[in-house]
Specification:
Layout (H helix, E strand, L loop, with lengths): L5 H7 L3 H12 L4 E3 L4 E3 L1 E3 L6 E3 L5 E2 L14 H13 L6 H8 L3 H14 L12 E8 L14 E8 L4 E6 L4 H11 L7 E4 L14 E4 L15 H18 L7 H13 L7 H11 L8
């Protein structure tokens, strides 16, 4: 099931109790080993509370402890619906729209989105392979200068596998000492991994580092040279900028990394067989600490 519809969502998560039961099963798929009894025991949900009680000793465990839902007074179903919306859109959804759809304050909607974006951060993921494109871009600010890095803009650097994943982050500048360590950490250089870039001088050492470096010269209107091009990552930058300008209108440099991670997550998982919403729920449940008695 690659697509997850609103009909499916309403059927599987009709109320808070269904959402809490999902979290309980996802966290303890083989049952809870009670920390007080020191053995696996059955647990039952306590009405009107986000806890389950051990049938033997009465100690409590909470499926939401340590998660983005922890100590939140907002309905679990509204949290799940916000995650569904973020996973279902291509260009993002604003906190203002969420506020209108679920009837919470703007402050609450913004906080929910900020917490959900933490689940979408894959900057610490595994190594990339295949053909790689690397590129830098400038986001936001006002264009008060010419050339690379006009004043007021934030620099972002991205690495993408063709037909695969992407990782992108905010960087302080586009110097070689900034960009190359990021690339080296994420893309193994053994066997001459192909890496394609533009003409930026910071990439000049890629060949000496062991990569099969191909490049195009955008300043000369050259966009493809054999297998070398950066069209894939350029497409991602365009999607990100359209979202920032069209959905959010503007994003501060402080919060831009979280928005970049959101767009990178959706891009990296766009062809997954598992619906993105289901994967996001699994991430939320995986953040739990060990069960403790209350």
């Amino acid at each position: 099931m690659r697509y997850y519809t609103i009909t499916t969502f309403n059927r599987e998560f009709p109320d808070d109790a269904a959402c809490l039961d999902f979290m309980f099963r996802a966290r303890w798929p083989e049952g809870v080993t009670c920390a007080k009894c020191q053995r696996a025991t059955s647990h039952y949900r306590i009405q009107d509370r986000r806890v389950y009680s051990c049938s033997a000793c009465g100690s409590h465990v909470s499926p939401t402890a340590g998660t983005i839902f922890h100590k939140s007074e907002t309905s679990l179903r509204l949290w799940f619906y916000a995650m569904f919306l973020m996973a279902s859109t291509r260009c993002g959804i604003s906190a203002k729209q969420l506020q209108r759809e679920i009837g919470v304050t703007y402050k609450t909607a913004w906080r929910m989105f900020h917490q959900i974006r933490k689940l979408m951060d894959e900057s610490g993921g595994g190594p990339f392979g295949g053909e790689i494109e690397a590129d830098e871009t400038y986001i936001g600010g006002k264009r008060t200068g010419q050339g690379r890095g006009p004043a007021g803009k934030t620099v972002a650097f991205g690495i993408v596998e063709r037909h695969g994943r992407i990782v992108a982050e905010v960087v302080p500048d586009v110097k070689a000492r900034t960009l190359l360590p990021i690339l080296w950490k994420r893309v193994p250089a053994h066997k001459g991994t192909p890496v394609y870039t533009d003409e930026l001088g910071s990439y000049n050492l890629l060949g000496k580092l062991g990569y099969a470096h191909g490049r195009v010269n955008h300043s000369q209107d050259e966009y493809v040279r054999g297998r070398a091009h950066t069209n894939t990552i350029d497409g991602f930058w365009s999607l990100l900028k359209r979202g920032v300008n069209g959905v959010y209108h503007s994003v501060s440099p402080k919060h831009l990394p979280a928005y970049i991670h959101e767009y990178a997550y959706r891009y990296s998982h766009r062809t997954d067989e598992t619906p993105m919403f289901v994967s996001l729920l699994a991430r939320a449940a995986a953040l739990q600490p060990a069960a403790k008695p209350s």
